[in-house]
Amino acid sequence: MEFVSPEGLRLDGRRPMEMRQIRGEVGAVSKADGSAVFEMGNTKVIAAVYGPREVQNRGQQMSDQALVRCEYSMANFSTGDRMRKPKGDRRSIEISLVIRQTMEACIMTHLMPRSQIDIFVQVLQADGGTRSACINAATLALADAGIPMRDLVTSCSAGYLNSTPLLDLNYIEDSAGGPDVTVGILSKLDKVTLLQMDAKLPMDIFENVMQLAVEGCKAIANYIREVLLENTKQLEHRRGI
Amino acid sequence: MREFQLKLNETQKIRLDKALQQIQALSSKNNSSAFASVIVADTIPVNHEDGVLKGHGTSDLDGEVVATLCGVVERVNKLVYVRTLRARYKPEIGDIVVGRVIEIVPKRWRIEINFSQDAVLMLSSMNMPDGIQRRRTAVDELNMRSIFEENDVICAEVRGFQHDGSLHLQARSQKYGKLERGQLLTIPPYLVKRRKQHFHHLEQYGIDLILGCNGFIWVGEHVEVRDAMVEDQENKPDQLIKMSDRNLMSIEEQEQTYTPLETRKVICRIANAVRVVSSLGFNLTVEQIMDIVEMSISPNIEIHEMLGAEFYVQIAEREVERRSSAGKRK
């Protein structure tokens, strides 16, 4: 199948190095300590953060750091074929773990000993790149909850189809079976916290693809910073003196 | 944005937007110099020659001071810290908090106060209802449920952190203790400012208003400092029976615990005022709440209408007026 037309356009009309439109919004769940909605094109994810709060299961309490938990789920209506998946299937357990580890790397857990932070992410619309969208939404929600973090983690995926590196794959490109590289970075520290690839790529091409994904992450980081700054300013203005 | 779910019609939307814009303009005019919002991983500009003390919400990265939170940079002499908005409550010694009992464990109650862990109220750090100062015996320990039960709402003062990192509360005065016959509201804690006075007796309505520093607000019927408790203790056997079977209360007792309709209406009115102010994100003060309550009473606004779109817009506009006049006076 032809994923990049001779004119250099992808199936949804983007250029190979073009990202889908992104949109982030904080404060989607009123009862949560922090929450956010993040959209990448047609992929839409909602995240809610509760905590730091008392550890529910005493046995898991740690006296020197906070416990971070994450739950990823996909709404039944998020995909076209309405499949009833059992909760806790292998895919969502794996993604929960990935998100938890990525977020734990940036949260300063040692500042909140004997407490627990719960991150819930749910995919409302799935169109490829849910993993990245979930991480971005979780970052926004954590920042909204006032949880101290080393840096903002942002994530973006890139792939390689028709001998062209493509940024931010959508569902059709994702299911083409080509390599899909998901990268998560700390933009300020310039460190990689997440790198996943589920196919083989030659070393030199991989570097190009990864570089592309990192560029995508940085663009997302800039956008997230704007959203957060706007939100912080508004809260402060509203509060008054 | 964190917008309340309201059905605004076109004019109301424009009025609200205008009011909020004015507020923004006012506050940036008033404190443009001290005002510096930062978000996670922003570099905070500091003068390293003067020496810097890094406070909360900052960390060190290659010699730069970097924020780890979203908020406003505050500088006190050498200290630089980030004051967060929208974080959980951070207790300070002497704060007055409202909380909910979630568990009774030997010699202590565990209390939820919106902090990262549950607070602890020791049996020994509260005045006994009979008012006698003495060692707490095993009998007292067994009778703990007669003082506070699970799910009771109580009011106490922050005593401090113990060596093991747990937070302790105390209730060594008549004004602390169980709160009954009223409403508990939860609002973001940063909207409550620490002040001298957190207990407010609104005499004209006969209402007690407690602005807990942890963002839990209590609106309830006014109670005189409790002599009734002493009586209760004297005829304790009666009380225990009463506990076990509340349906069989005598008529006098029912009258005693009955809150008149008028009072209940006022409670709702004040509670709604608090809801409106907090969902608009304005700072919460007694004067403001009273102002709103009066404003709702005079033109005969129904209690439920206070949560409607029109009233929100009115409050926002009024806040603009208030702030602009306060700004002029300065």
Give a written overview of the molecule.
Chain B: InterPro entries: Exosome_RNA_bind1/RRP40/RRP4 (IPR026699), KH_dom_type_1 (IPR004088), KH_dom_type_1_sf (IPR036612), NA-bd_OB-fold (IPR012340), S1_domain (IPR003029), S1_RRP4 (IPR048565). Chain B: It comes from Thalictrum thalictroides. Chain B: Pfam families: KH_6 (PF15985), S1_RRP4 (PF21266). The complex is a heterodimer of chains A (241) and B (330). Chain A is of the alpha+beta class and 241 residues long. Chain A has one domain (22-81, 89-239): GHMP Kinase, N-terminal domain (Ribosomal Protein S5, domain 2, 2-Layer Sandwich). Chain A has helices at 90-106, 130-144, 171-174, 203-239; strands at residues 22-26, 34-40, 43-54, 67-74, 115-125, 153-161, 164-167, 180-186, 191-197. In chain A, 49% of the residues are buried. Chain B has a domain at 88-179: Beta Barrel (OB fold (Dihydrolipoamide Acetyltransferase, E2P)). Chain B is 32% helix and 26% strand. The longest helix of chain B is centred in the first third of the chain and has 21 residues, at 10-30. The two termini of chain B are 32 Å apart. Classes of the chains: A alpha+beta (241), B alpha+beta (330). The interface between A and B is large, with 44 and 43 residues.
CATH architecture of the domain at 88-179 in chain B: Beta Barrel
By CATH's scheme, which homologous superfamily of chain A applies?
Answer: GHMP Kinase, N-terminal domain
Low-confidence spans of chain B: pLDDT under 50, at least 5 residues? 227-246
- Give the helix/strand class of chain B: alpha+beta
Got a strand count of chain A? 9
Count of strand segments of chain B: 17
Arithmetic mean of pLDDT of chain B: 83
Largest sheet of chain B: 5 strands, mixed, barrel
Uncertain segments of chain A are none
Helix content of chain B: 25-40%
Tell me, briefly, the overall form of chain A. globular
Helix and strand composition category of chain A = alpha+beta
Q: Provide a count of the helices of chain A.
A: 4
Along the chain, the helix and strand elements of chain A come as EEEEHEHEEHEEH
The arrangement of helices and strands of chain B along the chain is HEEEEEEEEEEHHEEEEEEEHHHHHH
For the record, give the distance between the C-alpha atoms at the N and C termini of chain B, rounded to a whole number: 32 Å
**Main beta sheet of chain A:** 5 strands, mixed
Spatial extent as radius of gyration of chain A: 18 Å
Protein name (chain B): Exosome complex component rrp4-like protein
InterPro entries (chain B): Exosome_RNA_bind1/RRP40/RRP4, KH_dom_type_1, KH_dom_type_1_sf, NA-bd_OB-fold, S1_domain, S1_RRP4
Pfam families (chain B): KH_6, S1_RRP4
GO biological process, one term (chain B): U4 snRNA 3'-end processing
